[in-house]
Please model this.
Amino acid sequence: MKRWGWLPRFVVWFLSLTLLLVLVMGAAVSWGSAELGWGDVWRTAGTKLTGSEPVDPATEAIIWQIRFPRVILAAVVGMALAGAGVVFQGLLRNPLADPYILGVSSGAALGAAIAIFTGAGAAWLGGWTVPVWAFLLAAVALFLVLGLAGRGLNRSTLILSGVVIQAFFGAMLTFLIGISSAEELQRIQFWIMGSVAAREWHHIYVVLPFMIPGLTLIWLMARQLNLFSLGERSAAHLGVPVRRIRMVLLLSATLMTAAAVAVSGTIGFVGLIIPHIMRRIVGPDHRVLIPAAVLAGGLFLVGADTVARTVMEPRELPIGVVTALVGAPFFAWQLKRRHEYQ
Model:
């Protein structure tokens, strides 16, 4: 009985947060410049799923072609970032760690800036130029960090390697910004601040092949992640192949982050604050914490995007501004608490 004692909490949290996420997504789709009711949202979803004729083609176009892709992408990106955040915090045993600690965001930002500045590959990639470049440079950043950290993948060395790569890529990004034209500079800055505006269904398909296997793999390794909290030496004594498991978890979390950043820009603090809050609510057992944090990450980013596009209507804020306004005070509060505790 004790072996499966986590299962009731898992079922309760999974079902509750899934229901809440569906309701919030429905509300987010219905909110906007065009007045739409909940009935319109679910009726349109029903007609698309069953293949029946839409009641109103204009309403269907707004809901299905504009709002649904944006809301679903916000949820998917939030899930990926929060899931990666749980892994980094658990693996590095640092509650202030987030997906950007290994320099992935700096790599993705530099990739996007190169695509915007040079236009390289635009003839073959078209609208995919920026996401592809962002993903490639994010992956390069990951492998540079892993190579710099060496075979041992020591926790402190990993963090320091991430700081070095972030600084290097950040300097290259600053150089590109410095020699960009006014139009290029505006595009680069908007991408760096993060946004899911004007995204379409195919952007969702970029993230899903990395997010679904990544989250599944991470959850299947939740027990080993629990043992990491005892320390790597203790985990090894309990039969965990520390280096191999750590490498698999790092790769999964970083590739999920890279895919999310490639389509949404650099949205900060989701992977920092959501795992931390959910750990306090549902406890440290990663078998419950991972699905709870993933669903809460989707909830948070759907809410942040809804605020970003409605609070100054008809103008729209980058979603990264909203998450930073929430995340920065939270980060400062956590730092203060740690200092007081020490």
Q: What stands out?
A: The mean pLDDT is 84. The two ends are 38 Å apart (CA to CA). Residues 6-337 form a domain with the ABC transporter involved in vitamin B12 uptake, BtuC fold (CATH 1.10.3470.10).
